[in-house]
């Protein structure tokens, strides 16, 4: 029952977010275009509900001459490819704002397991053990506020499983506000973070064309 209410809340709050934050979107779009050549958005294939695939949206944070399909953590000198605006966007997590559209159209939820990369099979398989692949992936989630990029795959999947077991309006409210505190403190953020057993599902922009 709550999942139906949760979807209605996602539609309502994502619509409000798109409306209220539209001036911020415009400012960031202008900053991105003035800072470097290339598209405004970065699209990446991710795993959605029931292991379906969708394109997650982010503001582009890297230069167009970045080696294609090379994750940030595998670049010899990733700092040279990240734009000035991109560094700010990554540090503040503002590069994630376009995912509000993913939420509005039903590809994501505000709260849920962060969507894995399509080829991140170890994390996908671990989440199968907990039923975490049966939920809409989230903009933020229980694992995000308990370590983010620093978490090893098994621990991350276990935390996603805890969210599945405890999913409720109260749990989502808790995750939402703890995320705000986590972002403000930049807790657990590792540039191109890989976790301890496999690549993190976040921070993997290589190039967008």
Question: How would you characterize the overall build of this protein?
Answer:
The protein is mainly α. It has one domain (2-185). The chain is 42% helix and 10% strand. The strands form two sheets. Strands 1-2 form a two-stranded antiparallel ribbon. A hairpin with a 5-residue loop joins strand 1 and strand 2 (53-59). Helix 5 runs parallel beside helix 6 (153-166). The model is unreliable at 188-200 (pLDDT under 50).
Descriptive tags:
globular, 209 residues, 4 strands, mainly alpha
How many independent structural domains? 1
Portion in helices = 40-55%
Distance between the termini: 41 Å
**How many beta-strand elements?**
4
Structural class: mainly alpha
The whole-number mean of residue pLDDT values reads 86
With strands numbered from the N-terminus, the spatial order across the biggest sheet is: 1-2
Question: What gyration radius follows from the Cα positions, in whole Å?
Answer: 16 Å
Taken as a percent bin, the fraction of beta residues is: 5-15%
Low-pLDDT segments, ≥5 res: 188-200
């Amino acid at each position: 029952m709550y999942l139906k209410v949760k979807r209605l809340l996602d539609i309502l709050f994502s619509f409000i977010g798109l409306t209220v934050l539209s001036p911020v979107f415009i400012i960031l779009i202008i900053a991105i275009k003035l800072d470097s050549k290339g598209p405004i958005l970065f699209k990446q294939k991710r795993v959605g509900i029931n292991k379906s695939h969708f394109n997650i949206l982010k503001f582009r944070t890297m230069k167009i001459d970045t080696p294609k399909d090379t994750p940030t953590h595998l670049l010899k000198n990733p700092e040279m490819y990240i734009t000035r605006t991109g560094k700010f966007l990554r540090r503040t997590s503002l590069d994630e704002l376009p995912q509000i559209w993913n939420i509005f159209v039903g590809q994501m939820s505000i709260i849920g397991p962060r969507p894995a990369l399509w080829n991140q099979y170890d994390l996908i398989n671990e989440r199968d053990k907990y039923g975490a692949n049966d939920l809409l992936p989230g903009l933020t989630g229980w694992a995000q506020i308990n370590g983010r990029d620093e978490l090893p795959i098994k621990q991350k999947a276990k935390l996603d499983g805890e969210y599945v077991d405890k999913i409720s309006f109260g749990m989502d409210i808790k995750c939402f506000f703890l995320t705000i505190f986590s972002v403000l403190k930049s807790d657990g953020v590792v540039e191109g973070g890989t976790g301890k057993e496999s690549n993190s599902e976040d921070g993997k922009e290589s190039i967008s064309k």
